[in-house]
Amino acid sequence: MSQSGMPRLPVRAGRRTWCAALLATLAAGAGAGTVQVDVSDAAGKPLADAVVFLDSAEARKQVKPLSGAEMAQEKRQFVPGLLVVPVGTEVLFPNRDSVRHHVYSFSPAKKFELKLYSGTPSNPVLFDKSGVVTLGCNIHDQMVGWVLVVDTPYYARTPAATGKAQLDNVPPGTYTLRTWHTRLPVGAPALEQTLAVPATGMATASVRMTGLQP
Predict the structure, then answer these.
(1) What is the pTM of this model?
(2) Number of other residues whose CB lies within 10 A of the CB of residue 23
(3) What does CATH list as the number for 32-62+154-214?
(4) For a pLDDT cut of 70, what percent of the chain falls above it?
(5) Complete DSSP assignment for 77-106
(6) Where are the domains of the chain?
């Protein structure tokens, strides 16, 4: 018994406990790298709002749906104009305008229709297949939005200032790096390249996107 009244662990048991805790700490912080992707347009200028994501068999096993995802209608626009979600995510489509909207998609990745409505539909839309989902409104032709459904937890968008997207805590391995933008021609696939991610440190890649629409 110690002076504090607490029972003392045997020396060996104490060492085992300390070693186990140390190993758990090291395991939690080890074996993950950082990926930085530099995306530019045909002129070599930084490209904003490109989506980069890493695909592999192991990555697909780690996918978890987002909670609370939504794409609203405000001022007769989809907000955000582009929403990126993992497979299995349910998305709400609240109408915050004073007029009714009729949201639909004919995209192979998700075909659905929310007929004329105000407020928030009680049932969210389940996006259960990866791919590009283009949205429109039957009432307001100028309204266009996109939901990009990815089968990986490792994705990011490029900021306007730098065009550089960073993904942290990526397990080491070989991935297919895919890069997609709303200005790609309709039906055009994401650009692809192989990328090896080390256990520590940073992996870098450069992507130049040509043929983008205005």
Answers:
(1) 0.84
(2) 10
(3) 2.60.40.1120
(4) 86
(5) EEESSEEEEETTEEEE--B-SSS-EEEEEE
(6) 32-62+154-214, 63-151
